[in-house]
Amino acid sequence: MAKIKPISTRFHGYLFRSRLEARWAVVFETLNMNWQYEPEGFQLPCGDKWLPDFLLEIQGKNVWVEIKPPGHDDDERLYRMAKGMSHNNYIWFISA
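Predicted structure:
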């Protein structure tokens, strides 16, 4: 299967790497959620580096969000990311 190249998109002062990420920013904005785009990267204990797409603040808790297109085959890497984060963080993986 051919890999589809993402189209960068501007919204709300950010240059998103893809239209999919920008669409989710619109969703978060429409829901009046407190969000930031790619505010911080992580070096996980397994050695992987991870730059989550969004940071949401929900009821005083940090929720890191990773957006992937349907059919994205990176489940093992996403699992390692979630496992490597501290228990004080929440992680959402959205495939849409």
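Summary: The beta strands are 9-11, 14-16, 34-37, 42-43, 49-50, 54-58, 61-68, 90-95.
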